[in-house]
Write a structure and sequence with these properties.
The chain contains two helices and five strands; from the N terminus they run βββββαα. It is an alpha+beta fold and about 80 residues long. Strand 1 and strand 2 form a beta hairpin. The relative contact order is 0.23. The mean pLDDT is about 95.
């Protein structure tokens, strides 16, 4: 699964998969306002990307979910717990 990350002072950002504009995006952990979150991207019913800010351990777990080839609905159910 392709991924990239960046550390900018106290902010860590990581992207895995191939997210694109137009994807369905859901924040599944944390919040954008708090600047600590995990957001999943879905396209055509598949989990296609994960973006995380300041949640690097969780990002690694979601990268594994991308590798598993989960559907977007399976990913959302997994996030719900």
């Amino acid at each position: 699964v392709p991924y990239v990350w960046s550390d900018q002072y106290d902010t860590k950002l990581a992207v895995a998969g191939r997210p694109r504009a137009g994807d369905e995006v859901r924040v599944v952990e944390g919040s954008l306002a708090a600047r600590t979150f995990v957001a999943v991207h879905g396209r055509a019913g598949r989990l296609v990307g994960v973006v995380a800010m300041n949640r690097m351990r969780r990002h690694l777990e979601w990268r594994k979910a991308l590798h598993e080839g989960l559907s977007f609905e399976e990913a959302l159910r997994r996030a719900a717990g």
